[in-house]
Predict the structure.
Amino acid sequence: MRDLCSATGLPRQAIHFYIQQGVLHPGVKTGRNTAEYDHSHVDRIRIVRRLQAERFLPLKAIKALLDGQDQDFTEEQRAFLGELKEELRQDFDPEGVVVQTVTAAELLARTGLEERDLNRALSLELVAGRRDENGELHIAARDTWALEIFGEMRQCGFSHEIGFEIDDVVFYGEILDELFRKELKLVSARLADIPAERAAAMIRDALPKISRFLSTYHEKRVAEFVSNLI
């Protein structure tokens, strides 16, 4: 572990955290408190740090990327999803490796949130950020919507005083992560025989409709709940 820390520039705690989060496989145990690490650990850590620094990717996204495709997909489905990614890249990832950022100070001023809100969002990986050479924290501009919406909720009265915290919206992300996994399986099963270019166009056209369905269905469920109280 001491040699791995020296080779990567990471402290022991950070490496243990990577292992805990599943982005780095554990070393081979050689004793009660010792383990062996090889060059694959060094390479993996360097890739993780590069993805964090250049792409502002959270660890769960990095793990998914480095682990490769879902084992539930067939080879044909994985090939199709790879082609589909390329077709959709310009729509959903136009910036490539250059990630636009805003300073934490600017974001907090714009949203009216407190620094503890931002720190918690960072720890939960709702937003991604890094510090520049002067120590100033920058947040990926593509993630600011999350804190902007949370700031609007604060203005609606969902305050610290009544116990409302960033953690209280995490379950939405967990639900949507599961939804997205099911969407991927559906797309790979139903559209795999369609040219990727055509499938990408269908997805572009369908996304606003799916978003409207989710929003309307949520409002419907709230209305049903209220009506059942009468």
Notes: The two ends are 63 Å apart (CA to CA). The longest helix spans residues 196-227. The longest strand covers residues 137-140.
